[in-house]
# Entry
Amino acid sequence: MAIRFFLVCMMSIALHQGAVAHGGVVQEEDLCVIKVNYLRAHFKIYQPRVTGHEQFCEDLPAASESVFVMEYQHDALTTMPIDFRIIRDVTGQGRFARMEDVQQIDDIDSVTVFYQPATTEPDVFTIIHEFIEEGDFIGIVTATHPETDKVYAAVFPFEVGFTGVGYWPFFIAVLVLLQLQYLVMSGRLKRWRAGRRSGATAVLVVCALLFSAPDTVLAEEGELRVTYTTPAGEPEINTLHSWILHVESSLGAPIENAKIEVVGGMPEHDHGLPTRPRVTQELGDGNYRLDGMRFHMSGYWEITVTITTDDSKSVVVIPLRL
Ligand SMILES: [Cu+2]
# Structure
């Protein structure tokens, strides 16, 4: 059994779950953008088996496992259920296929190669699809307004097994959303965004303490300690696996009956985990089974564990290099 012991800083703070920082100047030059009016999400695709860390925002070089990562640049998108469909391009329109062309397909299910039902994600939306053949495809991202049920979509044709020299921005899109403008201008959303910002700041404080003076942090009142083991051995890239989390107080008392949420990502790459890990079982003695862990690339990761008990909410960031 591989045992890795990590450590950690802890503060009792009210903190929003979306702990992994995102955004940044570099991304502003990113050409892979989905636009919903002025709301934007950046988009990138990895094919970890064939091209490792290389990012694509247009055509994909090989029929292989592909990780699609969409990072919201505007918080309004985090409140919208979003689904993701990939179909074979049967429109005959190729690069110029638009939503109207897609809507004319009689039986969309028969040409669908991947479908992720609508889900609401904080910060990062990720799907993994393994293409089994090369060809022309169309991606369709559909967002549903939570209050008006109005549906907005972005359509992007792309090619798998692309060998030419053409150039196309991956996402060309989309719609005018007066409703969203309204939402953004409303006080409710503003307040919510302000809350998120303070949460992010709190995480930075936690990490600064972690790297500068861990002993001091461990001595503070209210801290928790999180360790984990990986029963199946060292985590391997692209392999779904489980962790056993152990949560205890600074005095070593196990923390039981806690609600635990886990998010993670690569801060240097501004993306999240390709999966949504969940604690599926409390094993007793402060141990919790965390299923659904999967790292799609090597490098520096941070796993953020939010532990909620009857009287506190705490966040522990586990640094991890694969
Ligand atoms: Cu990465």
Notes: DSSP finds six helices and 19 strands in the chain. The helical segments are 48-51, 99-103, 108-111, 178-185, 187-212, 214-219. The first strand starts at residue 2 and ends at 4.
